[in-house]
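User: Can you help me understand a structure? I only have the sequence.
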Amino acid sequence: AYSSLALSPFLCTEKHLLHSKMAGISGFALFSFLLAASVQGDQSQDNRILPKEIPPHKAGDWQILTQEVLSQQAGVRSCPYPFLTDEKPSPRQIVDPVCPENDGDIFQGANGSWYRFQCCAHLPTGQGAKAVVNSVVPTFRECEALCALEAACVSFVYSAIKGSVDPQGLCKGYDAGGFTTTKCGDNSHDYSHLLLDPPTRPVVIKNRKRCATECPDADGQIQTARNGEIFHVDCGRRHGTEFFYRDTQASLSDCLAACAAMTSCRNADYQRMTRTCFYSTNEGPPIIDDAAFDSVRSVGFPGQCVPEPDCLTCKCVNPG
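Assistant: Let's start by predicting it. Here is the structure, written out as tokens:
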């Protein structure tokens, strides 16, 4: 027995393929027949079919190999090989998952939840799951949306094509689920299950000074003016809105102090090279990336909003 077999692309005629199906040849016999056909078959350029290159398979996988060859030649939907037996350690985040490319990857649902996508798979066995969604919809995404609308739905199976049992478009949602190793009986189903936690990424630690007053260390930090007004600092960004006044200040912190002293000032853009400060009444965050500028914007006074007795609304009080 061979541990592996590397297959070279081979040619077979439609006539040979049809005869193979009719004769019920399977497994190693069919593979041998197809290989022989590449040498002895009709070499006509008009009739031959060029299947995709097949990766090496383990000994004993002839039935799977034959199914892949026939699927590729027929142009039908294919399943991933090998079948997933464990979760991907670093799944990709996909918008619209498709098989077999996105097997094991994750996507975000209509309600903001995250799901794992598995091709040609069914609900894990032995969970006693109850169906809470059963409908026919045109797309996989519409099936996911139906599951999202049902509070008890945590997994769903979608028939991407007509299968041996279920019609195309059948959507079944269940009240249980998780990573599965249960294969679909054919290549028609896609399975997805709810993830308890959203995807994360490693924390990027920046060596910055705390309570800094100048950029770049002050980026994203909060500063309090002498009158108690609180400002948010954004380095390398400017508001770019019309300004009502400009002057020269020695530093960004001086620009902040000058803005706090003006009743109508809500933000200030500071150009470092010219030391020019532009004052504006705009209350929004800076939206223009500009390496020559830093900016500050007022976020109000501490205790400016206090709860009403019913704790449902707030009212503004005089910061003085």
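Now, to help you interpret it: Confidence is low (pLDDT under 50) at residues 1-30, 39-55, 57-75. The longest helix spans residues 27-40. Let me know which part you'd like to focus on.
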